[in-house]
Amino acid sequence: MAERCVNEQVSAASTDRKTSSTAGKPLCWQHRLFGKQLARCSYVNDTRKSIDSAAATLVHEDGRPSCEIVGMYFSFVNPGATCDDFTRQLVELYASVNSGGGDSGEKKKKFEVVHVVLWSNVTEVFDFDESFRAHVADLPWLAVPNRDYERKTRLTRRYRIKAGVPTLILLEASNGSIVTRGGVERTIADPIGAEFPWRPPHPKAALEDGPLLSCGARDSNEPMLHEELRHCFKGIYFSAHWCPPCKAFTPQLVDTYQRIQERGHDFEVIFVSSDRSEDSYNAYTETMPWLRIPFNQEERRRKLARAFDVQAIPTLVILDPRDNIITLDGRAELIEDPEGLNFPWSSRLVNILTEKYATSLHDAPAIILFVEGEDCEIQFGESVLLPAAQAYRRDQPDYDLNYDDPDDDSLQFYIALDCETSDILREFIGLDDAVPLLTAIDIPRGLYVVMEYGAEITVDSVQQFIDRFLNNKLPINKIAAVHKTSKINEHMPA
């Protein structure tokens, strides 16, 4: 009976996936990111009016966004406090920016806010619903419903929100791309929004504005021009000699930089200093094997910091050969992947399973191929998984390789190497050590399936395995150790 219930659950999930993929028009990014419903803060004390459709609130019937910029505001409630200082500043900015527009009919509001309310100290909260209402009552914008704990967890994990730190992230309403993560700092510096939404300048002008000099550990002392790097992926490294985390990260970057180059990638790093003296700058660059912006070009360095919305150091930004941003968080990517196996850390259909990606297994089902970890096995894994991943994505609506799709039912594809992350996952699921081993793991639903032992793993057999999994035609195994997150913990950021 228990197995039958699990099978019925998978069948329903598969049907839901197909329905969302093929029936009607594709869901807009606002709906996929924020869910089906949002609370209107001004009505939180009136249950008849407090919940709106996210799509209807943020998007017109014809599909056009109802505003130009969506601000995602993560705030933390201190027990007894109804509104913190920054919330009041944001209300003033909201009113100032929208003073020239309308919020109904065909007029497009310039700025809308979606509030994500979290708690700094859950042990002192007796009633979360009452605390939520007190925190947002009479605010002029929208909020993720208080009881949508899973959505809040996904958003805090997705945008890597730090506990206790209010964060305002501005998104383009047209496509959901990030304008700036530093909305709090920008609001404080520009409280009436005179330069809202603070879109950063393109970095190319600053990169091209003069020579790039060699650092002390580089093989060549010849300066270079940015034009000479037109075939390279580039890492723009913001750091300083006086900064302890920077001094700890720089040797890691040197090691990974060399490993990436040894694998044949055209990869160059450009150091942008935040040092306070030229002597410190010179001492620091002596250990670096890459290029640098001259210390005396302070304005050029400032332009680059503004272009990449740098909030703190060390920061590593990864650019493609055309100087488009691949990731603003290259430091985290490198720490998760010191061998550079997923370089250039762009959004890919098939990824190496690292600790960072392992957390996403709690959000959506995944196809995972376990291998030993040699380069040839990684290449084999990519060769058999990629066609299936491409075929699956073609059937999904509104897919963009450069957009981190928050669709709850989106299937993930990974290669799991022989490492600690894989060992932990195997123990959690209950898998043996056989490799290669193809699995479909669905932690949200507490189940997994395994390709028949001894079966040949090919492009065709992988595709057949995935099709049978999605159509509930494979023997189902239950994950006995699936964690049951408590209601209190769901209030906390991931």
Automatic annotation (TrEMBL):
GO MF term list: thioredoxin-disulfide reductase (NADPH) activity
GO cellular component annotations of the record: nucleus
Name assigned to this protein: Nucleoredoxin
Lineage: Eukaryota, Metazoa, Ecdysozoa, Arthropoda, Hexapoda
Domain Thioredoxin, chain residue ranges per copy: 159-355
Region (Disordered): 1-23
Species of provenance: Atta colombica
Top-rank taxon: Eukaryota
GO biological process: negative regulation of protein ubiquitination; negative regulation of Wnt signaling pathway
Pfam families assigned to the protein according to its UniProt record, in alphabetical order: Thioredoxin_8 (PF13905)
